């Protein structure tokens, strides 16, 4: 019946489908729907750049306008993936420069991007509009200069948390005078000072500018001038928030802020001088997102600011806020959905602030919409976790980091199995969970039994045996990403659940007990998985098969083995029994 | 370890073969059949999932025993203590824990340095507030060697010259003579910049060093 509707009509109907999942379903209906859909898919998301090749993507989707891609595994954020592992975007850019001349958007996360890539992007895509580089590395400010100079219609340049080799601030001056299209600029990760006058002029000629995130080097005295030229800003990231205490600066700043009637998000706040915080009070009632995670000010000042933001939905803050501050937050900010509390002194032996499990319990009690939590603390109890679970059954993301590995319930000295068990049992919508503290196999039994919607699980220093891993792999139906470090999980659970790995994006295991022999077996028997052993001690063949590997990264792929592996990564497959001759 | 291979159906179809269930599942042709000209039997083969090891119900009992064995094996057991100094004695630090991103780590380092200098009591002959000088005489800094996963910690206050520091590093990382030439010693100063250690006098170095890195020559590094 494929010919009952003209193609154009079907295409028009499909254009309303934005979710990849829906489009994938549509393409399975019949051959002609597959054909129509593939020609009109404009956005693609590749969760693992090695799961597919540029050639395969381009062959299937010839008219893509926006690409989003992720490279390194998440644990790369914590130095667990050695430098040089991979995640190079160049082959993609090269292929797309020929195949997608109309490409408009590139969004990358944890990938290696070189200046060459940036130059190629700036010269290949005449209509290029959006570049987001999240936690990327490998490029310098010279690459940024190419983008600024050549992308005539650039709307977004967002470098969030990328590691950029900062040669100079001169790149910003490469935006041509007739470039007026900028909507979003995030340069907060850069070190050097840019020419302030160039920045001012850029802001002044960008009437659509909604997001401006400055870097630390932009001084507070000059902030007012900048904001004044962009009263339409919706999101602002300040530079260093400190200056000599002078009334004229304070007045200027206060006036500038009061003109920003649309401001919803604030961030930046390095080196805060509390005397300048009142400059922002006029905008607080409209603020929905506040990132104070670099603001090294005491609880008292934090509370004064935060409690004025009655419509706050998202708060990122340092543990300087303490339990008392979180209690105040819980009373004032009833719309709070997301809370992240970062440690000010993660490597110190003793607590430096009075932040305990109580703070989180207060917020879970007082904020009915709380659904996303990232919390670093030094003590936790099963009672607190059970309380949180009962208070907030709609929790979606729960990431708890108790700083000392294997720390037990500080009240009873028992493992925290019951507490996390309560979380997974009560929070039926939970999609992401990070565990910490003393945990036995029992917690994994709870997780396998209850966490049916869990998509991402992070485990560290937990469990007793393979049974733990088996519970997770056999029970968590929606699991896509599993990352494990320093757990006594070995071969048995992995091999018994090999099939499960094809239903997931990836599995990371480091400092566990998976033997080289098991890795080889897995690689040989599962051709649609890439089983990569990462070992800096040298070829795994030089050690007995029973020797555990340092790190294991397993992911499903239709692209076959990688061809860009460094000397410390080996792919296990049936071609050459896992030994790659370099 | 015994490996038993058994063909098992994909998890969705449950245990055994319920003919009705199978029928429903196979009504529509799969992707491979429709578009890749793969015959049905081949499709079934493609979809066969193979547990490489059968998990038997007695595992739970067995694991209690195996678990003990595993614990003795390879995992460095961290003592549950609030006293970081216990770990420092071993010159051994857990990489990537707590899980804070590098930005935040550098940032925290700056905060703790500031806290240190305000509280710091000057001890004769010892350097400024390196990472770890919490009112004690020791000056522990992290040392990373390129190509080695584990970051170590080193007490700088016991060294008075590059010579003695280098000797200690060679011993710590077990660098053999011929490889000594291949590495250069770099350090991160208070502003976060990475510099070549031997470019500055020892006094300057010891007063501003925050961490050390042994880098292979002829590699460019990111800051």
UniProtKB/TrEMBL annotation, chain A:
Signal peptide region: none
Keyword vocabulary terms for this entry: Auxin signaling pathway
Taxonomy, superkingdom: Eukaryota
Domain F-box per the UniProt entry, residue ranges: 5-46
InterPro entries documented for this protein: COI1_F-box (IPR041567), F-box-like_dom_sf (IPR036047), F-box_dom (IPR001810), Leu-rich_rpt_Cys-con_subtyp (IPR006553), LRR_dom_sf (IPR032675), Transp_inhibit (IPR041101)
CDD domains tied to this protein: F-box_AtTIR1-like (cd22159)
Name of this chain's protein: F-box domain-containing protein
Taxonomic source organism: Rehmannia glutinosa (Chinese foxglove)
UniProtKB/TrEMBL annotation, chain B:
Localization annotation: Nucleus
Location, primary (coarse class): nucleus
Subunit structure: Homodimers and heterodimers.
Protein's job: Aux/IAA proteins are short-lived transcriptional factors that function as repressors of early auxin response genes at low auxin concentrations.
Range of residues in the leader sequence: none
Family stated for the protein in its record: Belongs to the Aux/IAA family.
Location of the PB1 domain: 138-219
This protein's UniProt keywords: Auxin signaling pathway, Nucleus, Repressor, Transcription, Transcription regulation
Cited SUPFAM superfamilies: CAD & PB1 domains
Annotated source species: Rehmannia glutinosa (Chinese foxglove)
Name used for this protein in its record: Auxin-responsive protein
Region feature (Disordered): 1-28
